[in-house]
Structure formats: structure tokens, C-alpha cells
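Quick one, probably user error.
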């Protein structure tokens, strides 16, 4: 790091400027080189398109770490001082994501910065975030607009107009009315810089913000909340903002990507608009009259050659279907004709299926785990041959807790783990190393104490709030009188946190409270169940799941003689996720197989050495390793389309919960039985050894890289090759 420090003014060494603003994070030289590559039409580069990106600075911020380490608090330049202060004292959240898809996008982009991939990302900025979750024990989830100030967030910059630096850079994005008349909308562009851990590479994320005076009211409103689904029109407007904003944003910024990666189909409108561009080049402004179906197909083939597409879920709600009239209200009728010619209509003929369009127009399609690949092939038999698997991962530098990082740092076996998580494979040699096991236990205890303290503080605060507001705290334990702390550190802690949607079955283990309590009573020791997660505000069934969990608390407490303590933590975000995955002893996941395409929170746990207790679905079908890394339960039938139903009776509550009650006593015994404690620790070590090298986004990026057709320096290629050696996602049998 020494070479970064430039004489008397170390802040200057990480300051960079161009016509669009002043930024901190990398040197001017690094900034210029990356920017030049991304804007050079003769060079290859990637554009990553995602409806959401989750990358909160409170869980990973290498710039803050650098400033703290070097003791930098200010700079000569006032603007730069403000930027520094924002990193040191600014808000830790950028609430511009809803869950797994966004966090994955953020993790992938962070790993792309680590792996030095020439890439820019495009997403939207939501001025009211996703939503802020308050939970009341009677009413269940209550949603509020998220209040946040993008202009104060560290690493997020409103780009300035090069012609007039007092104004923001704005782009215009055409929408259309029913008569194909143009309705212009406008967006400002924010840039979030994803800087790597060595501060010598970055990935810019450009977030389009349509909530400005130059946009019509209905577009401004649609721009405020991620996945606002108050109407079909709002939903399609959001998709159009993303897909329609790409070409104007690239023009304004000078980006010249050779490949576009669609992270889910949300941005697929860009495919339509690129086809239109090619036809306009060929036929001029009268392309709509002159182009025949063959011309559309030829243009689509050319566009397909630039598109990489990742499908993320077999669940219906994840696929956009819009009827003709809704589409008509925002898009030019010629785009409808393209959709027509591409065969992206639903069987009933009245609606467009955006997933079909994305499936058709690309040069590479992948699913996000092996099992999900097999499901996707059945869902889209016409494309079965081309659907491959690249199993998801997580950004290990974000998700490994500080205590675990210190542990890895203090053993030579792990030297270099930050750059290459493949070195985690060497953990296997430490299974019998008492010094390592002792340190591991200490790190785990410290992380557990931190989590339990957080939860206890929350319970106490809720109790105080009850006296001040009308909110009834969501936890029975907040109401319980008594001295001392509600939860004790060191007791078996089972974590469950993810979006609350029907197929994830957050309430599965509460089917039979006596069966759940039995092994706990048998051991006579308390067990903590810590749950968290948001349900989409319009998902009534999802919200009901939260209420069910709340409603179980008292009953479970009583039936277990006060030993089973079930707590719900509101406001799930990346910070809470990080506390939970490292501080739990067991990470629980109970989705209906095969609807969990991948799942990533279990990987975060695994990288901290925390065993999973999960349905054999998504990534766990690959990470389970015959019981060496955790436990499985539930049905394991081969996948078929009938299993995709989300009807209550198809969700197999009875079968899968019974299977859970069979394995749960094993888990409790492995934790409590002094003679079996060794097994528990061995599982922890084997998670690091077997799952660490595989389920990280450096490996994921290494698997995508050849698909992007990028010219990369030899050293980068070699490094990606080494990362790929740790895993081949697309192998037929796990
Ligand atoms: C990791 C993460 C998720 C995704 O968890 P899954 O297990 O994939 O459902 C969702 N939300 C947050 C805040 C996360 O950190």
C-alpha cells in the first residue's frame, strides 16, 4: 500500500477527477486507464445490467479501511475532504436492493473489481428504496417508504454535466403513448464506485434516477420504489426505465460495451431497442414500414451475439408477463412487432413474456445452480441445449466476519485467502489441529456474542418503544418480565433470514411445535431461533408467513418450558445478514424443492464455517458433501414441472416438516453432547475446506469471464484460470 501514499497529501493518491466530477477510491492513473478502456470502441468491455444492486458500505468498504489505517481525516481540497468524511462518518446503507438478486449483483461486481474485469454496471436509483419494514405483533409487517439521502452516501456520486458543472448530467429516454407518440422522460445519473480491496481497480455502477422534474409525474412515481407493483403499468414502466435507459446512458457516458450481461430479464427492453437501432441504420427513419420479418430476425441474431443472460428463478413471480395494452402504454408498437416475430407471446396469445424474449435473444444462457439448470431446461425445452449452470457465490471479503478473518490471517495455511479463496481448501489439513480448533471456537463465540447482544439490545429497545408509540413489539420476549438478558450467548443459535415468500416456507419448522420442542426439552438447554426477512409489500401470502412466525413465539416458549426462544428481527439488511451468518451455530433453510434456484445466505454461513441445515435444494445440493458440511432434510425426488406449483397443498408442509423433526434431534445432540462437539467443529472446518473454494464470487466471475469474450492481460487470464480450477459448475453430476 506504501506506493499509494503521495508525499504530504496521502488523500491525493486516491483522488481522481474527470469532466463528470471528483471521486475518491483509486489513483488518477488507475481511474483514467479503466475509463479509457470502457469508452474505447476498439476495446472489448462488459456492461452488467441489473434491476437492483446491493452493496452496503457498512459491510464492505475498503476506502474507509484505508483512510482509517492511514489516519487520513481530511485533504487540502474541500470537496475531497467532504468525500473522505462521508466514508468515515456517512451512512452505512444504500437501500437500493430487495434481497438475493441485488446482493448477488453487488457481490459479483465487487469480485469483478478484485479480478480486474473491464466492466460497468447499469441499474436504477430508487429515491424511496425498497421499503422500510416495521413489525407489529398484531398487525405483522408494516411498510414505510425508505428515507435515504443518496447525496450523503459514501462512494455514490451525482454525475455533473460536462458542459455546465453546476448541473447534473441528464439523459432523455423516450417512452410512448398508445398512438406511438413520444413521451420524453429524463434521468440523472449517479455513479457508485465499487473499489477493490487494494484500491487499484474499480467497477463503476451507473444508477439512473428518473424522479426528477423533467420526467412526467407517472414516471417519477414509478421511479421511487424498487419492484413497485401497484399496477402492471408501474411494473412495465420500471422495466422500460432500465432497458430503455441503457443506450442513452452509454451514449452520454461514452461507454462502448462489446457484451451486455442481463442479470435476470428485467432489462431486456435493451434487446428490442438494439434491434430497432440496427433496422434504423439499414432503412432510415421509415424502418417500421420497410423492415420485413426476415430483417427483424437478422437484426436479432446480431444483437443476440452481444447478449449474455442469466435466469435466476423458476418461480412465476420472477418472470415478467405484460398484456398488449399495458405494453402499448409505454413502448412503441414496433417493439411489439419484434416481440411477435421473436415468438415471445404467452400461449394465450394476449400477453408478452419477457423471459421468453431474453431466452431467445442471447449467445449464452445460464441458470444459477445445477439443479436449477435441470429445472430451467424442463421449463424451456426449446432452449434446453444451450442452458448451462454457473452456480452462484458470495463475495468472501464482504461476508467473512472480522473475527473469522483474523483467524484466517493467523494461520500460514491460509496465506493469500483474500485474493484467492481457493486456499481455503487447505483447511482440511487443520481438522485435527487443536490450536486451530481453539481459535475457531473463540472466533465463533465472539461472533455469537455480538449477534446475541444485538438481539438483546433490540428486544430492550422494542420494549421501551412500546411505551412511546402504538407499535406492539414483534417479539414475545420483549414483553416478558424478568431480570437478565432474554437470550444467552453460547446457547445453540439457529439462524434463518431471507425474503419471506411462499416457496421459502419460513414457517415450515413450526408445523408441530411439540415435535420441535421435544429434543430441546430432552437436553434441557435453551435454543435460540433468530428469524429475519422482508415480504414484498404487495405479497399478502408472504406477509402472512411473518405473522405466523410471530404467532408461534409464545406457544413455542411455553411448550418448551421456556427453552426455545424464537425472535424476529425487523429490517433485514446486509448488516443484519452478516451478523447472523457468522453468529449463528446452524443456518436453516426450508424452501420447497426445487424452487430455490440457488440461495446465497447459506454460502455466507459456510464461508464462516457455519454448517447448514437445509432442504437439498439450490446450491446446497452441491455444497452438502454427504453430511460432512451439515444436514439435509425433505423430499429429494427428481425435478419435474409438477413440482413447481406454489399452491399450499403442493408445498409439502407435512412431509418436509416431519423430515425436519427427524434430523433436528441430531443437530441438537451434536451441539450439546460433549462427546460429539468434535463432529460439530469438524463440520465447520469442512465447510471452509470444501465450500470456501467454490461458493465465492471470484470463482463465479472466473466462470463467466470466458463467456464475455474479453481481451484480458495474460496475468488476469492466468488468475481467472486458477480460480476456475476450484470448480466446474456445469458438470453433470455433483
Ligand atoms: C444474502 C442475502 C439475501 C439472500 O439470501 P437467500 O438465502 O439467497 O434467500 C437476501 N437479503 C440479504 C440482505 C442478504 O444479505
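Nope, works fine. Designed sequence:
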Amino acid at each position: 500500500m506504501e506506493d499509494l501514499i503521495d508525499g504530504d497529501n496521502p488523500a491525493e493518491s486516491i483522488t481522481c477527477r474527470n469532466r463528470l466530477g471528483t471521486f475518491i477510491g483509486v489513483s488518477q492513473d488507475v481511474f483514467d486507464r479503466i475509463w479509457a478502456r470502457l469508452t474505447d470502441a476498439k476495446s472489448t468491455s462488459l456492461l452488467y445490467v441489473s434491476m437492483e444492486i446491493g452493496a452496503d458500505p457498512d459491510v464492505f468498504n475498503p476506502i474507509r479501511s484505508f483512510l482509517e489505517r492511514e489516519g487520513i481525516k481530511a485533504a487540502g481540497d474541500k470537496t475531497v475532504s467532504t468525500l473522505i468524511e462521508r466514508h468515515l462518518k456517512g451512512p452505512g446503507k444504500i437501500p437500493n436492493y430487495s434481497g438475493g438478486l441485488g446482493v448477488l449483483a453487488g457481490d459479483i461486481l465487487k469480485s469483478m473489481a478484485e479480478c480486474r474485469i473491464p466492466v460497468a454496471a447499469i441499474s436504477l436509483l430508487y429515491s424511496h428504496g425498497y421499503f422500510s419494514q416495521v413489525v407489529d405483533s398484531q398487525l405483522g409487517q408494516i411498510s414505510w417508504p425508505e428515507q435515504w439521502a443518496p447525496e450523503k452516501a459514501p462512494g455514490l456520486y451525482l454525475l455533473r454535466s460536462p458542459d455546465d458543472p453546476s448541473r447534473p448530467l441528464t439523459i432523455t429516454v423516450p417512452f410512448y403513448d398508445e398512438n406511438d407518440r413520444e413521451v420524453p422522460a429524463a434521468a440523472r445519473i449517479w455513479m457508485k464506485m465499487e473499489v477493490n480491496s487494494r484500491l487499484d481497480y474499480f467497477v463503476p455502477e451507473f444508477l439512473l434516477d428518473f424522479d426528477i422534474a423533467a420526467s412526467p409525474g407517472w414516471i417519477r412515481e414509478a421511479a421511487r420504489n424498487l419492484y413497485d407493483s401497484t399496477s402492471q403499468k408501474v411494473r412495465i414502466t420500471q422495466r422500460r426505465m432500465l432497458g430503455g435507459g441503457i443506450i442513452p446512458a452509454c451514449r452520454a457516458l461514452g461507454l462502448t460495451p462489446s457484451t451486455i450481461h442481463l442479470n435476470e430479464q428485467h432489462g431486456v427492453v435493451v434487446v428490442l431497442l438494439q434491434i430497432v437501432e440496427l433496422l434504423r441504420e439499414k432503412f432510415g427513419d421509415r424502418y417500421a414500414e420497410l423492415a420485413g420479418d426476415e430483417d427483424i430476425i437478422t437484426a436479432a441474431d446480431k444483437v443476440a451475439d452481444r447478449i449474455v443472460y442469466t435466469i435466476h428463478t423458476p418461480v412465476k413471480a420472477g418472470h415478467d408477463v405484460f398484456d398488449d395494452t399495458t405494453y402499448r402504454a409505454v413502448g412503441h408498437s414496433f417493439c411489439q412487432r419484434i416481440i411477435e416475430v421473436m415468438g415471445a407471446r404467452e400461449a394465450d396469445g394476449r400477453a408478452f413474456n419477457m423471459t421468453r424474449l431474453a431466452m431467445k435473444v442471447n449467445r449464452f444462457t445460464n441458470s444459477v445452480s445445477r439443479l436449477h439448470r435441470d429445472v430451467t431446461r424442463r421449463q424451456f425445452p426449446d432452449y434446453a441445449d444451450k442452458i448451462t449452470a454457473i452456480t452462484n457465490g458470495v463475495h468472501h471479503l464482504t461476508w467473512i466476519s472480522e473475527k473469522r478473518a483474523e483467524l484466517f490471517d493467523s494461520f500460514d495455511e491460509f496465506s493469500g485467502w483474500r485474493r484467492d479463496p481457493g486456499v481455503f481448501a487447505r483447511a482440511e489439513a487443520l481438522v485435527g489441529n487443536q490450536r486451530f480448533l481453539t481459535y475457531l471456537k473463540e472466533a465463533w463465540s465472539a461472533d455469537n456474542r455480538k449477534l446475541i447482544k444485538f438481539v438483546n439490545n433490540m428486544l430492550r429497545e422494542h420494549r421501551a418503544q412500546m411505551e412511546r408509540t402504538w407499535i406492539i413489539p414483534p417479539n414475545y420476549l420483549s414483553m416478558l418480565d424478568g431480570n437478565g438478558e432474554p437470550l444467552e450467548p453460547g446457547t445453540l443459535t439457529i439462524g434463518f433470514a431471507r425474503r419471506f415468500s411462499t416457496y421459502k416456507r419460513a414457517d415450515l419448522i413450526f408445523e408441530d411445535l411439540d415435535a420441535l420442542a421435544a429434543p430441546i426439552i430432552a437436553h434441557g438447554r435453551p435454543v435460540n431461533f433468530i428469524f429475519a426477512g422482508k415480504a414484498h409489500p404487495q405479497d399478502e401470502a408472504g406477509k402472512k408467513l411473518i405473522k405466523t412466525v410471530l404467532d408461534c413465539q409464545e406457544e413455542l416458549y411455553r411448550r418448551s418450558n421456556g427453552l426455545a426462544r424464537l425472535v424476529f428481527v425487523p429490517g433485514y439488511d446486509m448488516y443484519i445478514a452478516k451478523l447472523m451468518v457468522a453468529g449463528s451455530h446452524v443456518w436453516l433453510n426450508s424452501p420447497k424443492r426445487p424452487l430455490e434456484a440457488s440461495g446465497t445466505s447459506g454460502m455466507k454461513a459456510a464461508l464462516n464455517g457455519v454448517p447448514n441445515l437445509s432442504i437439498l435444494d439450490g446450491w446446497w445440493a452441491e455444497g452438502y458433501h454427504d453430511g460432512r458440511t451439515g444436514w439435509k432434510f425433505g423430499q429429494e425426488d427428481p425435478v419435474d414441472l409438477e413440482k413447481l406449483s406454489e399452491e399450499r397443498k403442493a408445498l409439502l408442509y407435512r412431509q418436509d416438516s416431519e423430515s425436519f423433526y427427524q434430523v433436528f434431534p441430531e443437530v441438537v445432540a451434536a451441539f450439546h453432547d460433549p462427546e460429539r462437539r468434535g463432529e460439530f467443529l469438524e463440520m465447520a472446518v469442512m465447510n471452509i475446506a470444501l465450500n470456501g473454494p467454490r461458493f465465492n464470487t471470484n470463482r463465479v466471475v472466473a466462470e463467466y469471464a470466458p463467456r464475455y469474450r474479453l481481451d484480458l492481460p495474460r496475468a488476469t487470464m492466468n488468475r481467472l484460470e486458477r480460480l476456475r480450477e476450484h470448480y466446474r459448475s456445469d458438470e453433470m453430476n455433483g
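The pocket of pyridoxal-5'-phosphate is lined by residues 99-100, 103, 498-499, 572-574, 577, 599-602, 604 (CB under 6 Å).
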